[in-house]
Design a protein that fits this description.
The chain is α/β, with parallel strands linked by helices. The model has no long low-confidence stretch (mean pLDDT about 95). The longest helix is centred in the C-terminal third of the chain and has 21 residues. It has a nine-stranded mixed β-sheet with strand order 13-12-11-10-6-9-8-7-14. Strands 2-1-3-4-5 form a five-stranded parallel β-sheet, with helices on both faces. It has two domains: about 130 residues, Rossmann fold, CATH 3.40.50; about 200 residues, Dihydrodipicolinate Reductase, domain 2, CATH 3.30.360.10.
C-alpha cells in the first residue's frame, strides 16, 4: 500500500515537539514526510528541511509559500500538521482546510471560542478532517480504559480525578527567562497559562475515557509568583454530561513533579488509575476483589489497546508511539474517505475540532470562574449547549 504524503509546519531545529511528530508520522510507514515550512526564519527552515530529506522545492520558507506550492501540485500532501506557536494555529489551520487539506493541529486549536466555532464550521463545510493533537489519548492503556468504561466494567461512573502537575516553572528567579515568561503574559498566551497549557490535556483525557463532556465548572486559580499575570496553579471542580463529578489539579510550581499527568476513574463497581510516566501499567480495582495490574501488550486486552500496542509486553512505551497512534488513526480515516468505506471503529479515536472547541470553552470558563472567586459557570461552547 502506497504511503500517504505528509507536511509539517513548525517543529524546526531545536523544537521540542517537531521530533515527536516526525517520529510519530513515520513509525508505521503510513506517511512519507515530503513537505515542510519548519521555521519562522525562511532560510533556516529551508536548510533544515533539506537536511531532513525534503526536496528543495518542497522545503518552504513559510506556511503561505507552502500553501501556494502544495495547492498547485497534483501530488499535494494528504495531511498537514500545524506545530507553530499557539496564536498562529487558527489562521494556518483555517487556510489549509479551506484549500482542501486534512489538518492535524497542535493544541490549543485556537485562542478564542469564536475561532474554535469557526474551525468546526469550516471542517464541516469542506468535509476535511480537522484533528487536534491531544496525543496522550494515543496511549494504549488510555484506550483500554475507555473500552473498559464503555463496556461497563466499572458500572456507572461517579468520580473522575485528573492531574497534570510539574515543577519546571517554580523558580522565581527564572521569571524573566523568555522561554518561561511568555507563557504567563496575556498578550502572548491569552486568558490562561497553566490550565491552557497542561490542564486541558487532563480534562480531555477525562472526557475521552468516560465518554462524558464537561458541562459546568468552578475554578480556584492563583499566580504564586507575583510577577506573573496568569495562573501557575489551578484547582478545578467540574460536572459531566453523564452525571460524573470531576476534580482536576494542574500546576507548574509543584517542585518534584516532572510530567505528572494522571487519571483516576471511580465507578459503581470498580476503579482505574493510570499515570503517563508509567504508561505500561493500568491499575484496576474491582469492587470487593483484589487489585489487578493490567500490562500493556498482554493478552486479552480490548481491540483499541491491541491496535495501539507496537512493542512486546514489558518494554517501554513512549510519547512518540502515542503520537503514532493518532497518525495511524488519521491514515485509516483518510483512506476510508478516499476509498468510500467505513473507518475501523478502533481507529476512529483521534481528537477532532469539536474537542479543541470544547477545550477552549473550558479555558475561558476557568478564567471566568477564577475571576469570580470560584463561581460555577457553563463550560460548554455556545454551539454545543
Amino acid at each position: 500500500m502506497a504511503r500517504l504524503s505528509w507536511g509539517l509546519i513548525g517543529g524546526g531545529e531545536g523544537s521540542q515537539i517537531g521530533p515527536a511528530h516526525r517520529l510519530g508520522a513515520g513509525i508505521d510507514g503510513e506517511f512519507a514526510f515530503v513537505a515542510g515550512a519548519l521555521d519562522h526564519r525562511p532560510e533556516a527552515g529551508r536548510t533544515f528541511g533539506q537536511r531532513l530529506g525534503l526536496a528543495a522545492d518542497r522545503a518552504y520558507g513559510d506556511w503561505r509559500e507552502m500553501l501556494a506550492g502544495e495547492r498547485a501540485r497534483a501530488d499535494r500532501v494528504d495531511l498537514v500538521t500545524v506545530a507553530t506557536p499557539n496564536a498562529t494555529h487558527f489562521e494556518i489551520t483555517k487556510a489549509f482546510l479551506e484549500a482542501g487539506f486534512h489538518v492535524l493541529c497542535e493544541k490549543p486549536m485556537t485562542m478564542t471560542v469564536g475561532e474554535g466555532e469557526e474551525l468546526v464550521a469550516v471542517a464541516k463545510a469542506t468535509g476535511r478532517i480537522c484533528a487536534v493533537n491531544y496525543g496522550y489519548s494515543g496511549y494504549a492503556l488510555v484506550r483500554h480504559m475507555r473500552a473498559m468504561v464503555a463496556r461497563g466494567d466499572l458500572g456507572g461512573i461517579r468520580i473522575v480525578v485528573a492531574e497534570f502537575a510539574h515543577g519546571h516553572h517554580a523558580d522565581a528567579a527564572d521569571a524573566d527567562n523568555p522561554r518561561v515568561r511568555w507563557r504567563y503574559d496575556p498578550a502572548q498566551a491569552g486568558v490562561s497559562a497553566q490550565f491552557a497549557d497542561c490542564g486541558i490535556h487532563a480534562l480531555h483525557l477525562a472526557s475521552f475515557v468516560t465518554g462524558q463532556e464537561v458541562e459546568r465548572l468552578a475554578a480556584d486559580i492563583v499566580s504564586t509568583i507575583a510577577s506573573r499575570e496568569l495562573e501557575d496553579d489551578a484547582l478545578v471542580s467540574f460536572r459531566m454530561s453523564g452525571g460524573a463529578v470531576g476534580r482536576l489539579w494542574t500546576s507548574s510550581v509543584a517542585i518534584g513533579r516532572q510530567h505528572g499527568l494522571t487519571l483516576q476513574v471511580f465507578g459503581e463497581t470498580g476503579g482505574l488509575r493510570w499515570a503517563q510516566e508509567q504508561p505500561n501499567q493500568l491499575y484496576y480495582m474491582p469492587l470487593g476483589r483484589r487489585l489487578q495490574v493490567i500490562e500493556r501488550g498482554e493478552a486479552n486486552l480490548s481491540p483499541e489497546a491491541d491496535r495501539a500496542s507496537r512493542v512486546t509486553v514489558g518494554h517501554a512505551e513512549g510519547m512518540p508511539l502515542a503520537f503514532a497512534n493518532i497518525y495511524t488513526d488519521l491514515a485509516e480515516a483518510i483512506r476510508a474517505e478516499r476509498e468510500g468505506h467505513a473507518t475501523d471503529p478502533a481507529a476512529y479515536l483521534f481528537p477532532r475540532a469539536e474537542d479543541g472547541l470544547r477545550s477552549m470553552a473550558a479555558v475561558f470558563a476557568v478564567a471566568e470562574s477564577g475571576r469570580a472567586d470560584g463561581a460555577w459557570v457553563d463550560a460548554r461552547p455556545p454551539s454545543l449547549r
